[in-house]
Amino acid sequence: MISISGVPCTGKTSLSAELSRRGFTCISLSDYIKDTMKIKDREIEVSVLESIHINVDFVESHMSHLLPDTSGVIILECDEGILRERMKERRYSKAKIEENLEAQRSETIFSESLDKLPRNRILIIDATSRTIDDLAYAAMEFNKGISVVR
Description:
The protein has helices at 12-21, 29-37, 46-49, 80-89, 94-105, 108-114, 132-149; strands at residues 2-5, 26-28, 58-60, 72-77, 122-126. It is α/β, with parallel strands linked by helices and 150 residues long. α1 packs across α7. The protein starts with a strand and ends with a helix.
């Protein structure tokens, strides 16, 4: 399973939808948690994430890189100005916007991913000016390489 991660508003859900359209099994970790565990993903502890086992091609969430069955991680990043505007449109608080921008700046997701996987199983993509086709192609190629390594 490949995790599609990144701070909010980087394009994780759009990429997952495109990969699903192309025949891959993809799920939203947030939806999975709400539907099967009956809790909100904002309330979930890392210890609970470590007990989740999902058999799909791709799972998307800002927390998906923490899942135990992750064999590779795609981290989507985006220009800060664009992220800020997207988060404002979604009515994020100023504090939450800054928290998410700082998480991208400090490479928090990359660091957490390195705790679980070697560097060659982590792909960072700047999604700022890439089309959804470009992102899907990169994800499919990454998945091919990880499938060989498994």
